[in-house]
Amino acid sequence: MAIEVWLLFCVTALVAAVSPGPAILLAITNGVAGGVRRVLWSSLGNVTGLICVASVSVFGLGALLKASSLAFTATKLLGAAYLIWLGVKQWRKPAVGLRVEPLKSDAAERPWHFWREGALVALTNPKALLFFTALFPVFLDAGRPLGPQFLIMTGTMMCCSFTCLMAYGGLAQRVRRWLSEPACQRRFQRVTGAVFMGMGTSLLVLTRPR
Question: For residue 181, what are the contacts with CB-CB under 8 A and spacing of at least 6?
Fold first, then answer.
């Protein structure tokens, strides 16, 4: 891969990673509720999910979603249901007030829970599959081996995503002081829950690209 092509891909990947979406909202929610350690595990899970999404998009699942109305609809409904479920869970979570110091026990005892949550956000989003399917061919050089190019682009995308998620989560942790009161926490949970549900609903109106 030529260096100028890679630099252009870096800019594209960074813009995509910074753009608000379910993964960023999850990082913000975890940063406020549990601190950087929780954000770390959910971000690692999201990156793992994105690696899987990038891989299957190369092997044709993205093309299948474009070609098959049934496959696209099933993936869309699954992703929408998961995001709406996250929103309902966040909306209904009891507000008990937050301690100013990081909540170490929850994130330390259940890292798998947060890793799984981050991975599922990536795996159940059909937009991610379509994004990789549309993006990768633009930067691939058919005259060079495809394997190394795929590894370079996937690694770059994962680094950008992980860095942005950790940055959003770290910034969110800093506002925990303002959410130490149950009433403020409740408002935050209602807002983030509504946004999750809104993102899930937006997937329901997503149309299959032609």
Answer: 97
Quick one: three-class SS letters along 137-173?
HHHCCCCCCHHHHHHHHHHHHHHHHHHHHHHHHHHHH
Radius of gyration of the chain (CA): 18
DSSP 208: P
With b meaning 16 or more CB within 10 Å and e meaning fewer, what string describes 130-160?
Answer: bbbbebbeebbeeeeeeeebbeebbebbbeb
Decide: pTM greater than 0.70. Answer: no
CA atoms within 13 A on the CB side of 115: 8
DSSP string, 51-119: HHHHHHHHTTHHHHHHH-HHHHHHHHHHHHHHHHHHHHHHHHS------SS--HHHHHH-HHHHHHHHH
- Which of 81, 102, 106 lies closest to 93 in space, CA to CA? 106
3-class secondary-structure state, position 21: coil
> How many angstroms separate the CA atoms of 126 and 59, rounded?
15
Instruction: Convert the pLDDT of each residue in 145-169 to its tens digit.
Output: 777 888 888 889 889 989 999 998 8
Domain extents for the chain? 41-93+113-210
In angstroms, rounded to a whole number, what is the distance separating the alpha carbons of residues 30 and 43? 10
Tokens of 56: 């299957």
Q: Are 78 and 191 in contact (CB under 8 A)?
A: no
